[in-house]
Write a structure and sequence with these properties.
By secondary structure, the chain is an alpha+beta fold. It folds into 2 domains: about 190 residues, no CATH class; about 150 residues, no CATH class. Helices cover about 35% and strands about 20% of the residues. The protein has 10 helices and 10 strands. Strands 1, 2, 3, 4 and 5 form a 5-stranded antiparallel sheet that branches.
Length: about 375
């Protein structure tokens, strides 16, 4: 049985250090640790932990890329008094070990700004120093990736890297180390766990080599499905030229690549009975931009196409079901897509996705 890692417990690693706003002055460590208290002095068997962290971070930092620099810092005098004279950069409280960092970045106007922050690293009871080295090495990689992606303009305006992103990355790895220790045994695996943090998805840029094939596949699929479905009184189709501004130039079929993934604009149209000239007067028409493919699904384009095939096959059933229940008029375009079924592990074929969608929409058998 694999030894249990003594990284922060779920109780600790799920606790978000509060940061309602970032100030140039140092946020109080006493308040940020939510009453952890200073606790006893470091014991002899705890001192190697502090020394290991101090040495690893001193070798890795500072890190600079463009307007961003992450460096170690020390506490101001008023904070030191609350921690029995601890100056940092490595600090300890009753149960946890922290590090004082300074992130030089940009404010909302684009001007340089120093943001000081206390980042929680591990529990004081951590004794697996190799595992800790893995965590710190992965963290340094992720910091470099975040700095680079924050400046990227290929998918729209650059983003702002904040200390909260560093918190989120580390918490994601700590949660993974508690729930599935094998997922964080190597630097690569630990880095991947950090990058899965939901808070980072507005900052990360998907690899370009995965975007182009996915966009081409979606373009081909939507070209062959115009409209996606149509009945005498209802139609669902994609929109090639949406009316609102877009962050990046869309593809020929209106697919837009963003930091969050690939988006498509869907239009639903409800028709009245045909008039004397055979025309179908429009009762309602709605358009919505929908995130269709998240970054995690970009590398498996065939599975995305299988989802679309299953989705288009299921649409007539769901439209008929909602029409029979007099609920069709209340539905927006987003209600007709369930891209979240791509998160399921089992569906692989169009039939699998059709069954998953029918279950999600609670459609009657048939």
């Amino acid at each position: 049985m694999e030894p249990s890692a003594r990284l922060p417990s779920r109780r600790h690693c799920d606790r978000a250090i509060p940061h309602p706003c970032y100030r140039d002055a140092f946020m109080s460590l006493a308040s940020s640790t939510r009453g952890e208290g200073l606790g006893p002095p470091l014991s002899l068997d705890e001192q190697p932990l502090i020394a290991r962290i101090d040495g690893a971070l001193a070798r890795a930092l500072p890190i600079s890329d463009g307007p961003y620099t992450l460096a170690l810092t020390t506490l101001p005098d008023e904070e030191r008094a609350r921690l029995d004279g601890q100056s940092g950069p490595v600090l300890y409280t009753r149960a946890l070990v922290h590090v004082a960092l300074r992130l030089t970045g940009l404010d909302a106007t684009g001007a340089p700004r120093d943001l000081d922050h206390v980042l929680t690293l591990c529990e004081r009871t951590e004794r697996d120093l190799d595992r800790l080295d893995t965590l710190l090495a992965a963290f340094v990689r992720v910091v470099c990736r975040l700095m680079r992606d924050a400046q990227d303009t290929s998918l729209g305006a650059p983003a702002r890297l904040l200390p909260s992103h560093l918190d989120a990355a580390l918490r994601a790895a700590l949660r993974a180390s508690v729930r599935k220790p094998r997922k964080t045994r190597t630097v690569d695996a630990c880095e991947a766990a950090m990058l899965e943090a939901p808070e980072l998805q507005d900052l990360l840029v998907p690899p370009p080599e995965t975007i182009a094939p996915a966009v081409a596949a979606l373009d081909a699929w939507f070209t062959a499905h115009v409209p996606v479905m149509s009945t005498p009184d209802f139609e669902l189709t994609h929109v090639r030229e949406p009316r609102w501004p877009r962050l990046t130039p869309p593809s020929p079929q209106g697919i837009e690549a963003t930091r969050k993934g690939l988006c498509v604009t869907i239009r639903t149209t409800a028709f009245d009975a045909p008039d004397a000239f055979g025309e179908r007067p429009i009762l309602d028409a709605f358009e919505q931009q929908i995130l269709l493919v998240d970054p995690a699904s970009l590398s498996d384009v065939d599975r995305v196409i299988a989802y679309l095939d299953g989705w288009s096959a299921t649409l007539p059933r769901v439209v008929a079901h909602w029409h029979a229940k007099d609920k069709l008029a209340d539905r927006m375009p987003c209600d007709f897509l369930e891209p979240s079924v791509l998160d399921l592990k089992k569906p692989r074929t169009a039939e699998d996705f059709a069954a998953a969608l029918a279950k999600r929409w609670k459609l009657p058998a048939g």
